[in-house]
Amino acid sequence: MNFENLSALMRSRRAVFPVSFTGEKVADEVVTSMLENANWAPSHKKTEPWRFIIFKDQSLEKLGDYLVNYYKENTPVEKQSDLKIKKTQNKTVKSSHAIAICMQRDPKESVPEWEEIAAVACAVQNLWLSASANGLGGYWSSPSSMINADEFLNLKEGERCLGIFYLGVPIEQLPTTSTRTPLEEKIRWF
């Protein structure tokens, strides 16, 4: 790995929505390797707060059912949309894997909670870069259904869910270009 290759990888990473997945399955070994990269994220005092709950095969259907039921239970009937229900279910059906992104709070609270949330975000960035390097699509979503999924996910004391990462094979070649506002607008030198 050199700086140019690393820069190209970071700049080509894209959010790929599950609607753009083929439904093709990714080998569990590839997903495990990607999560191993996520495990190498930095964390203050080495708390390593990231936790991952992986859904595949039939458990994706269970996840889809949970998401739809949560929507129905938490949305007034007159505001419910059959299209929204179908799109919610299809996110899981089209994904190869869905990964609940969770955080285990350091029981000693040796670092501020925001630092552990930031560490989890770094782990997700490693996961996302690994997906891109493998030609896969990924999308990190944080709907209230997942933020409030403690019971569904059987979370332990001190754990909380920060969202879900949908992973899949994209239906077409991923776009490699995007834009950002100029860096000069975001930095100041002292």
Short description:
Helix content is 42%, strand content 16%. It has 190 residues and is α+β, with helices and mostly antiparallel strands. It has one domain: NADH Oxidase.
Share in helix:
40-55%
How large is the radius of gyration? 18 Å
Number of helices: 7
Return the CATH architecture.
3-Layer(aba) Sandwich
Which superfamily, in CATH terms, is the homologous superfamily? NADH Oxidase
Average pLDDT metric: 94
Distance between the termini: 32 Å
Query: What is the third-level CATH name, the topology?
Result: NADH Oxidase
Shape verdict: globular
Order of helices and strands: HHEHHEHEHHE
Describe the sheet with the most strands: 4 strands, antiparallel
Beta-strand share of residues: 15-25%
- Catalogue the unreliable spans: none
Strand order of the largest sheet: 1-2-4-3
SSE-based structural type: alpha+beta
> Into how many domains do the coordinates divide?
1
> How many β-strand runs?
4
CATH class descriptor: Alpha Beta
